[in-house]
Amino acid sequence: AIIMLFPPSREVISYCQSRARKKISPVTADADASYSDLLEVDVSAFTRRISRPGKPHDTVELPDEKLWIDSAFIGSCTNGRIEDMRAAASVLKGRKIAEGVVLKIVPATDRVWQQCMDEGLIQVFKDAGALVSNAGCAGCAAGQVGQNGPGEVTVSTGNRNFPGKQGKGSVYLASPEVVAASAVAGYIAGPGMIPEHPEKRPSEKAVRIEGEPVQPKKTAESPVEVTGRVWYIPRDHIDTDMIYHNSYLSVTDVDEMGQYTFRNMEGYEHFASQAREGDIVVAGKNFGSGSSRQQAVDCFQSLGVRCVIAESFGAIYERNAINAAFPILECDRIPELKLFDGDMLTVNFETGLVQNRTKEIEIAATPFSEIQMEIYQRNGLF
């Protein structure tokens, strides 16, 4: 079996009714239902467990040996509730994060974040030395706070740890209490395993690489006007699953992401093989809605697509694109361009002027804001 169904409690029904704003009839077994087997599970015998990297179902008990970590993450839709925040705070109160470890805490919703503030939990997290971010999915959704880098070891409360889902490093899954305790100990540990005095992590032998110091890579100033061949996709609500399906989230090399662009969108499965560097994508309303995955932006950059113009963008997609210095423009006059695939389009990011050079038609789009232009010229937020 891969799921178990439990009759909802009164608390669950009350919560669902408050969110749905209507009466809900729960689904339960008939009173005279017969069962093929009856199993009794003694939950009091459960022990704390962790999932090993790459496989959420590969669980083991907390290790006796010290598995040193570099970072810790508390959040996600399943472990970013107020109960989880309270559990983490109960471990962190009066303690400090271990030297060399970064603890990132992301409440799941704004309501939970406000409760943390009202109950003084944010102060507990800050006093412990944790980094607290705004509410959301964060690192569990392959974006923003909580991603790790190559070689980094993270213990996380995310619900899945498939390769690449939370970054390029190794990710163990654990409960909020275990993650909090691990962040204090410096290695994976339960609340009762935290040492009285901080333990020093064994230092790795430094390797000196001889040669000239590496100079920062210089990049040419990004052009404010581009010209390219048009891909006209007059569809609304093209979501991130259509742009970059979640079955490819294990791909972490941006250079390899382009080949999967639009592979899940009917009629455009061969887009990646036919696209050319310098192309421009034009679409309808709410482009990039859905999840917060950064790959839905990076895949276009991988292909060399110059920009995306749409009537509107999903809020998270818009922010991700701007932060990554990928040009996007909103334009509510797209039909006036009378576009067809292959038309040549010139776009000026500074003025918002969009010209269909094939048909000699021009319209005005929303130009880059001052901050968008600054990030674009700096080749990204970081």
Q: What are the key terms here?
A:
single chain, 382 residues, alpha/beta, Aconitase, domain 3, Aconitase, domain 4, 7-stranded mixed β-sheet, 5-stranded parallel β-sheet, 11 helices, 14 strands
Structure overview:
By secondary structure, the protein is α/β, with parallel strands linked by helices. It folds into 2 domains: 49-193, Aconitase, domain 3; 225-377, Aconitase, domain 4. It is built from 11 helices and 14 strands. Strands 11-10-9-8-12-13-14 form a 7-stranded mixed β-sheet, with helices on one face. A 5-stranded parallel β-sheet has the order 5-4-3-6-7, with helices on one face. Helix 2 (82-92) crosses helix 4 (121-128) and helix 2 packs parallel to helix 5 (176-185).
SSE blueprint and pairings:
Blueprint: H1 10-20, E1 49-51, E2 59-61, E3 71-74, H2 82-92, E4 102-105, H3 110-118, H4 121-128, E5 131-132, E6 153-156, E7 170-173, H5 176-185, E8 225-233, H6 240-243, H7 254-257, H8 271-274, E9 280-283, H9 295-303, E10 307-310, H10 315-323, E11 328-330, E12 344-348, E13 353-356, E14 361-364, H11 370-377
Parallel strand pairs: 3-4, 3-6, 4-5, 6-7, 8-9, 9-10, 10-11
Antiparallel strand pairs: 1-2, 8-12, 12-13, 13-14
Helix pairs in contact: 2-4, 2-5
Give a short overview.
The chain is of the alpha/beta class. Helix content is 23%, strand content 15%.
